[in-house]
């Protein structure tokens, strides 16, 4: 029976977030995903980056809701390997509704208005135009969203909970993979022979847009290859 389905981001108090997390604290990822769909049904969307964690979460979601709504923020500058993976995942899970969400501006329009290669000069503005604003549009009218964040990924992610008050998007952000380690993610992918981005085999632990992602040397942090040369480790979706 849905428990919080009538509640929205604004209506839940901090105590209620604490209580939900307490109730879920002994549950595993599959239980958290089930809980999320029981509570939010069609008002829940998964914003997937199609990284290794994303593939794991897609597989788990497909066991709970075979026609789940999944969005991919198509900045138009992803690696060709990432676009191939999205197509491949759709073939493996034909019932999933994978939506390629486009920015309001084409790359040409962005260049005309903000100058060429905005990712080199103002990556925060570029991320805002090509990721934040499109996700804001997607989440308008939805109550909650799923994310594949893991606590060990970076200090900025170390305190995330299963259920989070998301002030930025006025939404409820549910993160079922918070306890997973990098090895857990890959054990799961190998166990179930899931498709994954071939760039992972070439030294890219975290994969974003092609202009802002480099391979990482052994021993580098999982997000060390993102926005090299800038004091930036997040695109802004999770801050
Ligand atoms: S990751 Fe780079 S190219 Fe992609 S939206 Fe952000 S700044 Fe732009």
From TrEMBL:
Catalytic reaction(s) noted: [thioredoxin]-disulfide + sulfite + AMP + 2 H(+) = adenosine 5'-phosphosulfate + [thioredoxin]-dithiol
Predominant cellular place of this UniProt entry's protein: cytoplasm
Binding site for [4Fe-4S] cluster: 126-127, 209, 212
Cofactor: [4Fe-4S] cluster
Domain Phosphoadenosine phosphosulphate reductase stretches: 44-215
Molecular functions per Gene Ontology: 4 iron, 4 sulfur cluster binding; adenylyl-sulfate reductase (thioredoxin) activity; metal ion binding; phosphoadenylyl-sulfate reductase (thioredoxin) activity
EC assignment: 1.8.4.10
GO process terms (BP): cysteine biosynthetic process; hydrogen sulfide biosynthetic process; sulfate assimilation, phosphoadenylyl sulfate reduction by phosphoadenylyl-sulfate reductase (thioredoxin)
InterPro entries (UniProt xref): APS_reductase (IPR011798), PAPS/APS_Rdtase (IPR004511), PAPS_reduct_dom (IPR002500), Rossmann-like_a/b/a_fold (IPR014729)
Annotated localization: Cytoplasm
NCBIfam families reported for this sequence: APS_reductase, cysH, PRK02090.1
Protein family according to the UniProt entry: Belongs to the PAPS reductase family. CysH subfamily.
Protein name per UniProt: Adenosine 5'-phosphosulfate reductase
Lineage: Bacteria, Bacillati, Bacillota, Bacilli, Bacillales
